[in-house]
Amino acid sequence: MLSSILVPLVPVILCIGIGYLTARVGWVRATAVPDLSNIVFLVLTPALLFRTMGHVRLQELDFQPVLLYFSAAALLFGLTLAFSRFSTAAAARALAHTFSNLVMIGAPLMGLVYGPQGLVTLFTLVSLHSLVLLTAATMVFELAEAREQQRTGSAAPRPMAHTVWQAVRNSIVHPVPLPILAGLLFAQTGWQLPEMLDRPLQVLAAALGPMALLLVGIALAHTRIGNHWRGALRVAVIKNLALPATLGTLAWALGLSGPAIAVMFTAAAMPVGANVLLFTQRYGVMQEEVSSAIALSTALALITLPVVLVLAQFFMH
């Protein structure tokens, strides 16, 4: 049983390793990473999301596991703020502890381990992941920044309502949630895509897994950890281990189990997502530490994910 659980990890590790070596020998330069990211996020990801959700009826979706995920994230987010001085730096750490890389690493891994139904469960979470976490984080960041500005007597804070609305809009008008919603709407019509359209989408969707994993390795090779490795490592350990532990404890306490819970447990163990870095850049705080944490969390996931996949089997029944 152990081998059947861990075998799907082999292509994940190999693709990341090949991407890393490709960058290290100079075949892919750092300047190419943004363009490769555009291919993954703007072309391949929407194809997989739309094609997967384009066969799902709304009554088939189960939001209970998603609620469990957000409950665990909210608990860990709150604990991070409670044990820190309320500031934008604490908000950045709290977001890094709870925001997962669900597409570039999560989608290929879930497809290999849990199959098409696992992807449907994952994409149900993905459809709300950025909207819920980034909107909540925006409010915390804005409150913390307003407090800091009030304390230092610097410029007046931005109107929170406008900032929150921007976060909500940007979380929906985005190449990840939009194709999920479009696919769900299409599925409710009962129509079928013509083969001449469905076949190219199938080819593009199949390319997402290897391309995204190669890009992860390439990005790792071009990331410099710097002097903030201790704080970054602490963030990586909490993200990779504390979030799935919190979710698993809640699931056990509530008596929840089944494949969807296993998917959420595994999703919680994904490394820190790149959107956290965008927030630190926007608020001018913790940029180097979060950038290092993303790299360390991704590298650490190669060790922690096998353990999580084994533990996830306890939720399968």
TrEMBL record:
UniProt keyword RNA-binding present: no
Topological relation to the membrane, as annotated: Multi-pass membrane protein
Keyword Transport: yes
GO biological process, one term: transmembrane transport
Assigned protein family: Belongs to the auxin efflux carrier (TC 2.A.69) family.
Protein's UniProt name: Transporter
One Gene Ontology cellular component: plasma membrane
